[in-house]
Amino acid sequence: MPLYEHVFIARQDLSNAQAEALIEHFSTVLADNGGKVVEHEYWGVKTMAYKINKNRKGHYAFVKSDAPAAAVLEMERLMRLHEDVMRVLTIKVDAHTDGPSVQMQKRDDRERGDRDGGDRGGFGGGERRERSFGDRPERSERPSFGDRR
To answer: How many CA atoms lie within 13 A of 108 on its CB side?
Structure first.
């Protein structure tokens, strides 16, 4: 069966237990339609980039499933009809990654990288290098915007 990853956002005024109950509810929908949930994670309440249905925050949940397309379509249909679910995203993947998702990993592990005394340099860390403009002509020698040579 195909492998899927689902992320959904529930309303901010739900309790944590209610948000986790939503995960269980939609997991049973998948199971009833011939699929199975491989793993699920509750990411907690997070601030969104913009308001959705007058909500600034939402409960985020992540579900990894192994299910036929019909089961996924039914789960998405029910999620879109459910009044507590604001957004749903489902993607098909070739293989599930082992271990916790990036959201669940410790923040220190993700950002620690080069902070142990090394100089981060420019974008992406690594060594600091001098910027070189190579064979670029002096500003006075370059054609202006209106000049067409």
So the answer is: 1
Contact in structure between 65 and 34 (CB atoms under 8 Å): no
CA 49 and chain centroid, separation: 13
- Domain range holding 51? 3-95
Secondary structure of residue 101 in the 3-state scheme: coil
pLDDT tens digit sequence for 68-119: 999 999 999 999 999 999 999 999 988 887 777 778 776 555 555 555 555 5
Amino acid, res. 137? P
Residue 74's contacts (CB-CB under 8 Å, 6 or more residues apart) are 29, 33
User: In CATH, what number is assigned to the domain containing residue 72?
Assistant: 3.30.70.60
